[in-house]
Amino acid sequence: MSGDLPLNINIKEPRWDQGTFMGRAQHFFMVTDPRNVLLSSEVLEDARVTVENYRLGVVKPGLTEDQLWRAKYIYDSAFHPDTGEKMLLIGRMSAQVPMNMTITGCMLTFYRTTPAVVFWQWVNQSFNAIVNYTNRSGDAPITMNQLGAAYVSATTGAVVTALGLKSLTKHLPAIMGRFVPFAAVAAANCINIPFMRQRELKHGIPVTDAEGNRLGESSQAAQQAIVQVVVSRIGMAVPAMAIPPVIMNALEKKAFLKRFPVLNAPIQVGLVGLCLVFATPLCCALFPQKSSMKVSGLEPELQERIRQNNPHITTVYFNKGL
Question: Is residue 36 within 8 Å of 94, Cβ to Cβ?
Fold first, then answer.
């Protein structure tokens, strides 16, 4: 050991108690911090080296516990928890707020014409496809054919959903039209996420014991993980896509916005961003990142294998993805 920092700090787990909502919220406020998007490759690499060396028992001289945890959260924000590979910049959870506030703000601003609905739903679902792929659970590779088929299916479904909902609101009050983007996004999440993670549903995701020892792959765990992610994603969209339309509907009746209509989009984007800063980490925290399920809920053949090799295990754990 080449430093004074003890080696018994468990940086494999989050710093805060993940058994409580507040602990998970503190964790995800760090993981989704938009400032992490601005970090250079050198800073990310230094964090990776610091974390991996610490796990091997090598401590940088002068390293403090706070610096170690900071490095751990920088590492977690940029590197996949299962594969260890550096994630695509716009697919990282730290990019959720700046990317989503721009896309969602434009979706809410330009919702009146069919071309605008199609374009912004396509942009949004393309972005979601990147996020879903980047934050997938498990370490099994996905082929370009599988990825392409999933993307086309998910994006087509999202655009069709948006156009169908738009046509239904033609004869309803104008305020109802403003909620079409939210309804489309909620429905599209139910399509996009399972499609982009269909390989997990077919082949399963890794399940482990409490110490992280791999026990096998489970499709049942994948189903639970994807349901939790869908619920969290829809929850993230609620404040950002439900609150600004009400505010903007009132503001557009005021003289100021009628005089300066060019401010419509910037104000809307700003309101969405304000909502997402809080909604993103709080909705990620609805379920533990390291999710769990009873052995009895797994596939019969995996249950049998676990009971034969590890009869004392009653609960398995898995990364649900984000």
Answer: yes
- The DSSP code sequence of 28-89 is HHHHT-GGGGG--HHHHHHHHHHHHHHHTT---TT--HHHHHHHHHHHHHHB-TTT-PBPPG
pLDDT tens digits, one per residue of 179-224: 777 777 777 778 777 877 778 888 888 888 888 888 888 899 999 9
The verdict on residue 318 lying in a domain is no
Q: How far apart are CA 35 and CA 318, in angstroms?
A: 28
Q: What is the span of the domain harbouring residue 49? A: 21-86
158 and 197, same domain (yes or no): yes
Taking residue 111's Cβ as centre, other Cβ atoms within 10 Å add up to 21
Burial of 259 (0-12, 13-18, 19+ CB in 10 A): exposed
The Cα 69–Cα 133 span in angstroms is: 26
Q: Which of 42, 64, 86 is at the close of a domain?
A: 86
Task: Write down the pTM of the prediction.
Answer: 0.73
Q: How far apart are CA 226 and CA 232, in angstroms?
A: 10
